[in-house]
Design goal:
The protein has 350 residues and is of the alpha/beta class. The chain has one domain (2-275): P-loop containing nucleotide triphosphate hydrolases (Rossmann fold). The protein is 54% helix and 17% strand. The protein contains 14 helices and ten strands. It has helices at residues 2-25, 41-58, 75-79, 92-99, 122-130, 135-153, 168-177, 189-203, 205-210, 246-261, 277-286, 290-297, 302-313, 321-349; strands at 29-32, 64-69, 107-111, 114-117, 156-162, 180-185, 215-224, 229-233, 239-244, 268-274. An eight-stranded mixed β-sheet has the order 3-4-2-5-1-6-7-10, sandwiched between helices. A two-stranded antiparallel ribbon has the order 8-9. Strand 8 and strand 9 form a beta hairpin. Helix 1 (2-25) packs parallel to helix 6, helix 2 crosses helix 14 and helix 4 packs across helix 6. The chain starts with a helix and ends with a helix. Bound molecules: adenosine-5'-triphosphate and magnesium ion (MG).
Protein backbone atom coordinates (compact mmCIF):
# COMPACT_ATOMS: atom_id res chain seq x y z
CA UNK A 1 0.00 0.00 0.00
CA UNK A 2 2.77 2.37 1.02
CA UNK A 3 4.70 1.50 -2.10
CA UNK A 4 1.77 2.27 -4.35
CA UNK A 5 1.16 5.59 -2.57
CA UNK A 6 4.66 6.71 -3.12
CA UNK A 7 4.44 5.70 -6.77
CA UNK A 8 1.38 7.95 -6.97
CA UNK A 9 3.25 10.80 -5.35
CA UNK A 10 6.16 10.28 -7.67
CA UNK A 11 3.81 10.31 -10.66
CA UNK A 12 2.19 13.60 -9.63
CA UNK A 13 5.50 15.21 -8.80
CA UNK A 14 6.71 14.41 -12.28
CA UNK A 15 3.46 15.63 -13.89
CA UNK A 16 3.41 18.92 -11.99
CA UNK A 17 7.03 19.56 -12.81
CA UNK A 18 6.42 19.10 -16.54
CA UNK A 19 3.21 21.08 -16.28
CA UNK A 20 4.84 24.05 -14.60
CA UNK A 21 6.42 25.36 -17.79
CA UNK A 22 3.28 24.72 -19.84
CA UNK A 23 0.99 26.47 -17.35
CA UNK A 24 2.88 29.74 -17.63
CA UNK A 25 1.94 29.83 -21.31
CA UNK A 26 -1.72 29.00 -20.75
CA UNK A 27 -2.74 32.12 -18.82
CA UNK A 28 -5.04 33.37 -21.58
CA UNK A 29 -7.12 30.25 -22.13
CA UNK A 30 -10.84 30.95 -21.66
CA UNK A 31 -13.36 28.11 -21.91
CA UNK A 32 -17.12 28.48 -22.40
CA UNK A 33 -18.80 25.87 -20.28
CA UNK A 34 -22.26 25.01 -19.03
CA UNK A 35 -23.33 21.43 -18.31
CA UNK A 36 -26.67 22.17 -19.99
CA UNK A 37 -27.18 22.19 -23.77
CA UNK A 38 -28.23 25.20 -25.84
CA UNK A 39 -27.00 27.98 -23.55
CA UNK A 40 -25.02 29.92 -26.17
CA UNK A 41 -21.56 28.39 -25.66
CA UNK A 42 -20.79 27.95 -29.35
CA UNK A 43 -22.37 31.21 -30.53
CA UNK A 44 -20.48 33.18 -27.87
CA UNK A 45 -17.17 31.42 -28.60
CA UNK A 46 -17.52 32.34 -32.28
CA UNK A 47 -18.54 35.94 -31.72
CA UNK A 48 -16.04 36.63 -28.93
CA UNK A 49 -13.12 35.22 -30.92
CA UNK A 50 -14.19 37.15 -34.02
CA UNK A 51 -14.40 40.42 -32.08
CA UNK A 52 -11.06 39.76 -30.36
CA UNK A 53 -9.47 38.96 -33.74
CA UNK A 54 -10.87 42.18 -35.17
CA UNK A 55 -9.32 44.13 -32.29
CA UNK A 56 -5.99 42.34 -32.88
CA UNK A 57 -6.19 43.18 -36.59
CA UNK A 58 -7.00 46.82 -35.98
CA UNK A 59 -4.19 47.24 -33.48
CA UNK A 60 -1.71 45.48 -35.80
CA UNK A 61 -0.98 42.92 -33.09
CA UNK A 62 1.69 40.32 -33.76
CA UNK A 63 -0.50 37.76 -31.98
CA UNK A 64 -3.68 36.12 -33.20
CA UNK A 65 -6.72 34.52 -31.59
CA UNK A 66 -7.33 30.76 -31.52
CA UNK A 67 -10.87 29.34 -31.37
CA UNK A 68 -11.16 25.67 -30.54
CA UNK A 69 -14.08 23.31 -30.32
CA UNK A 70 -14.32 20.37 -27.95
CA UNK A 71 -17.70 19.18 -29.17
CA UNK A 72 -18.14 16.40 -31.78
CA UNK A 73 -21.19 18.36 -33.08
CA UNK A 74 -18.80 20.64 -34.98
CA UNK A 75 -21.06 23.69 -34.71
CA UNK A 76 -18.23 26.14 -34.16
CA UNK A 77 -16.71 25.57 -37.58
CA UNK A 78 -20.17 26.12 -39.09
CA UNK A 79 -20.37 29.49 -37.36
CA UNK A 80 -17.27 30.45 -39.35
CA UNK A 81 -18.41 28.74 -42.55
CA UNK A 82 -15.50 26.28 -42.36
CA UNK A 83 -17.33 22.94 -42.36
CA UNK A 84 -15.70 20.71 -45.01
CA UNK A 85 -13.23 23.42 -46.06
CA UNK A 86 -9.53 22.57 -46.65
CA UNK A 87 -7.95 22.02 -43.24
CA UNK A 88 -11.19 20.88 -41.60
CA UNK A 89 -9.83 17.64 -40.15
CA UNK A 90 -12.90 16.75 -38.01
CA UNK A 91 -10.81 17.01 -34.86
CA UNK A 92 -7.88 14.84 -35.98
CA UNK A 93 -5.32 17.39 -34.83
CA UNK A 94 -6.87 17.62 -31.35
CA UNK A 95 -6.85 13.80 -31.18
CA UNK A 96 -3.18 13.63 -32.20
CA UNK A 97 -2.24 16.24 -29.59
CA UNK A 98 -4.06 14.32 -26.85
CA UNK A 99 -2.32 11.11 -27.90
CA UNK A 100 1.01 12.94 -28.08
CA UNK A 101 1.67 11.91 -31.67
CA UNK A 102 1.75 15.31 -33.43
CA UNK A 103 1.73 19.04 -32.65
CA UNK A 104 -1.52 21.02 -32.94
CA UNK A 105 -2.19 22.25 -36.46
CA UNK A 106 -4.99 24.84 -36.53
CA UNK A 107 -6.66 26.12 -39.70
CA UNK A 108 -4.85 29.41 -40.28
CA UNK A 109 -6.53 32.77 -40.77
CA UNK A 110 -10.17 31.70 -41.12
CA UNK A 111 -10.59 35.43 -40.58
CA UNK A 112 -7.81 38.02 -40.27
CA UNK A 113 -5.93 37.23 -37.03
CA UNK A 114 -8.16 34.22 -36.28
CA UNK A 115 -7.16 30.56 -36.33
CA UNK A 116 -9.52 27.63 -35.75
CA UNK A 117 -9.00 24.14 -34.37
CA UNK A 118 -12.01 22.34 -35.76
CA UNK A 119 -13.86 19.47 -34.20
CA UNK A 120 -15.92 16.60 -35.52
CA UNK A 121 -16.19 12.82 -35.38
CA UNK A 122 -12.54 12.38 -34.34
CA UNK A 123 -13.43 13.89 -30.96
CA UNK A 124 -15.37 10.71 -30.23
CA UNK A 125 -12.03 8.88 -30.37
CA UNK A 126 -10.63 11.38 -27.87
CA UNK A 127 -13.54 10.52 -25.58
CA UNK A 128 -12.96 6.79 -26.06
CA UNK A 129 -9.30 7.19 -25.19
CA UNK A 130 -10.00 9.30 -22.11
CA UNK A 131 -12.92 7.34 -20.74
CA UNK A 132 -11.60 3.89 -19.78
CA UNK A 133 -8.11 5.11 -18.95
CA UNK A 134 -7.11 4.82 -15.31
CA UNK A 135 -6.35 7.99 -13.40
CA UNK A 136 -2.67 8.15 -14.31
CA UNK A 137 -3.25 7.36 -17.97
CA UNK A 138 -5.92 10.05 -18.18
CA UNK A 139 -3.68 12.64 -16.54
CA UNK A 140 -0.90 11.72 -19.00
CA UNK A 141 -3.30 12.51 -21.86
CA UNK A 142 -4.25 15.85 -20.27
CA UNK A 143 -0.57 16.64 -19.89
CA UNK A 144 0.14 15.74 -23.47
CA UNK A 145 -2.61 18.10 -24.64
CA UNK A 146 -1.54 20.90 -22.27
CA UNK A 147 2.03 20.67 -23.57
CA UNK A 148 0.85 20.70 -27.21
CA UNK A 149 -1.28 23.78 -26.56
CA UNK A 150 1.54 25.51 -24.66
CA UNK A 151 3.79 24.81 -27.64
CA UNK A 152 1.69 27.12 -29.88
CA UNK A 153 0.28 29.44 -27.18
CA UNK A 154 2.87 32.18 -27.74
CA UNK A 155 1.30 32.86 -31.13
CA UNK A 156 -2.01 33.82 -29.52
CA UNK A 157 -3.38 36.76 -27.59
CA UNK A 158 -6.37 34.66 -26.50
CA UNK A 159 -7.34 31.00 -26.80
CA UNK A 160 -11.06 30.23 -26.56
CA UNK A 161 -12.53 26.76 -26.10
CA UNK A 162 -16.15 25.85 -26.85
CA UNK A 163 -17.10 22.96 -24.53
CA UNK A 164 -19.75 20.28 -25.08
CA UNK A 165 -22.85 20.23 -22.88
CA UNK A 166 -22.74 16.64 -21.64
CA UNK A 167 -19.39 14.98 -22.04
CA UNK A 168 -17.44 15.08 -18.80
CA UNK A 169 -14.29 13.61 -20.33
CA UNK A 170 -14.03 16.53 -22.78
CA UNK A 171 -15.18 19.08 -20.22
CA UNK A 172 -12.41 17.96 -17.85
CA UNK A 173 -9.84 18.04 -20.64
CA UNK A 174 -10.83 21.68 -21.27
CA UNK A 175 -10.67 22.45 -17.54
CA UNK A 176 -7.21 20.92 -17.42
CA UNK A 177 -5.82 23.58 -19.78
CA UNK A 178 -8.06 26.54 -18.85
CA UNK A 179 -7.32 29.65 -16.85
CA UNK A 180 -10.87 31.01 -16.95
CA UNK A 181 -14.38 29.63 -17.26
CA UNK A 182 -17.17 31.76 -18.70
CA UNK A 183 -20.63 30.26 -18.10
CA UNK A 184 -23.30 31.33 -20.60
CA UNK A 185 -26.77 30.81 -19.15
CA UNK A 186 -30.29 31.00 -20.56
CA UNK A 187 -33.50 31.40 -18.60
CA UNK A 188 -34.40 27.94 -17.38
CA UNK A 189 -33.82 25.79 -14.32
CA UNK A 190 -31.65 23.29 -16.17
CA UNK A 191 -29.27 26.02 -17.19
CA UNK A 192 -28.79 26.95 -13.54
CA UNK A 193 -28.25 23.27 -12.82
CA UNK A 194 -25.54 23.39 -15.51
CA UNK A 195 -23.81 26.08 -13.47
CA UNK A 196 -23.90 23.82 -10.45
CA UNK A 197 -22.27 21.09 -12.52
CA UNK A 198 -19.39 23.46 -13.33
CA UNK A 199 -18.95 23.77 -9.55
CA UNK A 200 -18.73 19.96 -9.25
CA UNK A 201 -16.15 19.78 -12.03
CA UNK A 202 -14.07 22.40 -10.23
CA UNK A 203 -14.09 20.16 -7.16
CA UNK A 204 -13.02 17.08 -9.09
CA UNK A 205 -9.86 15.94 -7.26
CA UNK A 206 -7.88 15.24 -10.45
CA UNK A 207 -8.83 18.53 -12.12
CA UNK A 208 -8.04 20.36 -8.89
CA UNK A 209 -4.66 18.68 -8.51
CA UNK A 210 -3.76 19.12 -12.18
CA UNK A 211 -4.85 22.73 -12.53
CA UNK A 212 -5.30 24.80 -9.43
CA UNK A 213 -5.34 28.00 -11.52
CA UNK A 214 -8.68 27.42 -13.27
CA UNK A 215 -11.52 29.56 -11.96
CA UNK A 216 -14.88 31.02 -12.92
CA UNK A 217 -14.52 34.44 -14.56
CA UNK A 218 -18.26 35.09 -14.59
CA UNK A 219 -21.72 34.11 -15.74
CA UNK A 220 -23.15 35.56 -18.95
CA UNK A 221 -26.89 35.89 -19.52
CA UNK A 222 -27.71 34.76 -23.06
CA UNK A 223 -30.85 35.32 -25.17
CA UNK A 224 -32.77 37.69 -22.91
CA UNK A 225 -35.37 40.18 -24.04
CA UNK A 226 -34.00 43.61 -24.74
CA UNK A 227 -37.29 45.14 -23.63
CA UNK A 228 -36.67 43.81 -20.10
CA UNK A 229 -34.03 46.46 -19.51
CA UNK A 230 -35.06 50.08 -19.09
CA UNK A 231 -32.46 52.71 -19.69
CA UNK A 232 -32.11 55.33 -16.96
CA UNK A 233 -31.19 58.68 -18.46
CA UNK A 234 -29.93 61.88 -16.91
CA UNK A 235 -31.32 65.37 -17.64
CA UNK A 236 -29.46 65.57 -20.92
CA UNK A 237 -30.93 62.26 -22.12
CA UNK A 238 -27.68 60.32 -21.77
CA UNK A 239 -28.03 56.73 -20.54
CA UNK A 240 -26.37 56.51 -17.13
CA UNK A 241 -27.70 53.19 -15.88
CA UNK A 242 -30.18 50.48 -16.70
CA UNK A 243 -32.86 48.83 -14.68
CA UNK A 244 -33.78 45.27 -15.42
CA UNK A 245 -37.28 43.93 -14.98
CA UNK A 246 -39.12 40.61 -15.40
CA UNK A 247 -37.28 37.34 -16.00
CA UNK A 248 -34.08 39.18 -16.65
CA UNK A 249 -33.84 40.71 -13.19
CA UNK A 250 -35.15 37.55 -11.51
CA UNK A 251 -32.54 35.33 -13.12
CA UNK A 252 -29.72 37.78 -12.40
CA UNK A 253 -30.60 37.69 -8.69
CA UNK A 254 -30.88 33.88 -8.70
CA UNK A 255 -27.53 33.48 -10.45
CA UNK A 256 -25.84 35.90 -8.07
CA UNK A 257 -27.19 33.82 -5.20
CA UNK A 258 -25.93 30.59 -6.84
CA UNK A 259 -22.43 32.05 -7.20
CA UNK A 260 -22.41 33.38 -3.63
CA UNK A 261 -23.61 30.03 -2.29
CA UNK A 262 -20.77 28.31 -4.15
CA UNK A 263 -18.34 30.77 -2.50
CA UNK A 264 -17.37 32.31 -5.85
CA UNK A 265 -16.43 35.99 -6.07
CA UNK A 266 -17.18 35.94 -9.82
CA UNK A 267 -19.89 38.28 -11.13
CA UNK A 268 -22.91 37.86 -13.34
CA UNK A 269 -21.71 40.11 -16.15
CA UNK A 270 -23.60 43.38 -16.66
CA UNK A 271 -23.69 42.82 -20.41
CA UNK A 272 -26.54 40.60 -21.56
CA UNK A 273 -26.76 39.00 -25.01
CA UNK A 274 -30.20 39.85 -26.37
CA UNK A 275 -32.68 37.34 -27.64
CA UNK A 276 -32.63 37.12 -31.40
CA UNK A 277 -33.07 33.53 -32.54
CA UNK A 278 -33.50 34.47 -36.18
CA UNK A 279 -30.20 36.35 -36.27
CA UNK A 280 -28.49 33.42 -34.50
CA UNK A 281 -29.85 30.86 -36.94
CA UNK A 282 -29.11 32.99 -39.98
CA UNK A 283 -25.54 33.51 -38.80
CA UNK A 284 -24.92 29.76 -38.51
CA UNK A 285 -26.60 29.08 -41.85
CA UNK A 286 -24.45 31.67 -43.61
CA UNK A 287 -21.25 30.95 -41.65
CA UNK A 288 -21.07 34.51 -40.39
CA UNK A 289 -20.71 36.06 -36.96
CA UNK A 290 -23.11 38.82 -35.86
CA UNK A 291 -21.10 41.81 -37.05
CA UNK A 292 -20.56 40.19 -40.45
CA UNK A 293 -24.30 39.62 -40.81
CA UNK A 294 -24.95 43.23 -39.78
CA UNK A 295 -22.66 44.33 -42.64
CA UNK A 296 -24.26 41.88 -45.03
CA UNK A 297 -27.81 43.10 -44.29
CA UNK A 298 -26.74 46.54 -45.43
CA UNK A 299 -25.12 45.29 -48.63
CA UNK A 300 -26.76 45.36 -52.09
CA UNK A 301 -26.60 41.52 -52.18
CA UNK A 302 -28.90 41.14 -49.17
CA UNK A 303 -32.29 40.94 -50.96
CA UNK A 304 -31.01 38.02 -53.08
CA UNK A 305 -29.38 36.30 -50.11
CA UNK A 306 -32.58 36.70 -48.13
CA UNK A 307 -34.56 34.93 -50.84
CA UNK A 308 -32.09 32.04 -50.91
CA UNK A 309 -32.28 31.74 -47.13
CA UNK A 310 -36.07 31.50 -47.25
CA UNK A 311 -35.65 28.01 -48.73
CA UNK A 312 -33.29 26.66 -46.05
CA UNK A 313 -34.75 28.44 -43.01
CA UNK A 314 -38.39 27.82 -43.92
CA UNK A 315 -39.68 31.29 -44.69
CA UNK A 316 -38.42 34.77 -45.38
CA UNK A 317 -36.13 35.98 -42.63
CA UNK A 318 -37.02 39.34 -41.21
CA UNK A 319 -33.76 40.84 -40.12
CA UNK A 320 -33.35 44.56 -40.07
CA UNK A 321 -29.95 46.17 -39.94
CA UNK A 322 -30.81 47.43 -36.46
CA UNK A 323 -31.46 43.93 -35.00
CA UNK A 324 -28.22 42.55 -36.40
CA UNK A 325 -26.31 45.70 -35.39
CA UNK A 326 -27.73 45.59 -31.88
CA UNK A 327 -26.68 41.98 -31.38
CA UNK A 328 -23.21 42.71 -32.79
CA UNK A 329 -22.97 45.58 -30.28
CA UNK A 330 -23.92 43.20 -27.43
CA UNK A 331 -21.01 40.93 -28.35
CA UNK A 332 -18.58 43.85 -28.55
CA UNK A 333 -19.67 45.08 -25.15
CA UNK A 334 -19.47 41.54 -23.72
CA UNK A 335 -15.91 41.18 -25.00
CA UNK A 336 -14.89 44.47 -23.38
CA UNK A 337 -16.38 43.48 -20.05
CA UNK A 338 -15.34 39.81 -19.95
CA UNK A 339 -11.82 40.03 -21.35
CA UNK A 340 -11.28 43.34 -19.56
CA UNK A 341 -11.99 41.51 -16.33
CA UNK A 342 -9.56 38.72 -17.24
CA UNK A 343 -6.83 41.30 -17.90
CA UNK A 344 -7.54 43.06 -14.61
CA UNK A 345 -7.31 39.76 -12.72
CA UNK A 346 -4.09 38.98 -14.54
CA UNK A 347 -2.61 42.33 -13.48
CA UNK A 348 -3.66 41.81 -9.85
CA UNK A 349 -2.19 38.30 -9.71
CA UNK A 350 1.07 38.96 -11.49
N1 LIG B 1 -29.06 35.93 -29.71
C1 LIG B 1 -29.71 34.77 -29.76
N2 LIG B 1 -30.95 34.65 -29.24
C2 LIG B 1 -31.61 33.48 -29.24
N3 LIG B 1 -31.13 32.34 -29.79
C3 LIG B 1 -29.90 32.40 -30.33
C4 LIG B 1 -29.14 33.60 -30.35
N4 LIG B 1 -27.96 33.35 -30.97
C5 LIG B 1 -27.98 32.06 -31.31
N5 LIG B 1 -29.13 31.48 -30.94
C6 LIG B 1 -29.54 30.07 -31.11
O1 LIG B 1 -29.49 29.42 -29.84
C7 LIG B 1 -29.22 28.03 -30.02
C8 LIG B 1 -28.17 27.56 -29.04
O2 LIG B 1 -26.97 28.25 -29.26
P1 LIG B 1 -25.55 27.53 -29.21
O3 LIG B 1 -25.48 26.44 -30.20
O4 LIG B 1 -24.54 28.60 -29.24
O5 LIG B 1 -25.62 26.91 -27.74
P2 LIG B 1 -24.64 25.80 -27.13
O6 LIG B 1 -24.61 26.05 -25.67
O7 LIG B 1 -23.34 25.78 -27.84
O8 LIG B 1 -25.43 24.47 -27.46
P3 LIG B 1 -24.88 22.95 -27.28
O9 LIG B 1 -24.94 22.69 -25.81
O10 LIG B 1 -25.84 22.11 -28.07
O11 LIG B 1 -23.50 22.90 -27.80
C9 LIG B 1 -28.80 27.86 -31.48
O12 LIG B 1 -29.87 27.28 -32.16
C10 LIG B 1 -28.58 29.28 -31.96
O13 LIG B 1 -28.92 29.45 -33.33
MG1 LIG C 1 -22.34 24.16 -28.75
Amino acid sequence: MRGSRSRDEEFWENVLERLHAARRKLTRVVILLNGKGGTGKTTCTANFSAVLAQVATESGSAKRVLAMEFDPQGNLKSEFGQMGKPGDDDGKSILAAVMGTAPLAPMREVRPHLDLLPSGEQLRRVVRNLAPANEHERVELWLSFAEALAEIADEYEWILVDCPPGDEALQKLAMAVARWIVIPTVFDKASRYGLEQVGHLLQDPDVDRFNEDVDVLGVLMFAFERREARAIKDDTGEIVDQKEVGQRSRLRRALEEDLARGGSPAPVFQTVISNSRVVGETCRELGMVAYELADSVQSPQWPQLRKELAGTLGGLVSITDTTAEALAADYEQAVQEIFGRALKEEAVNS
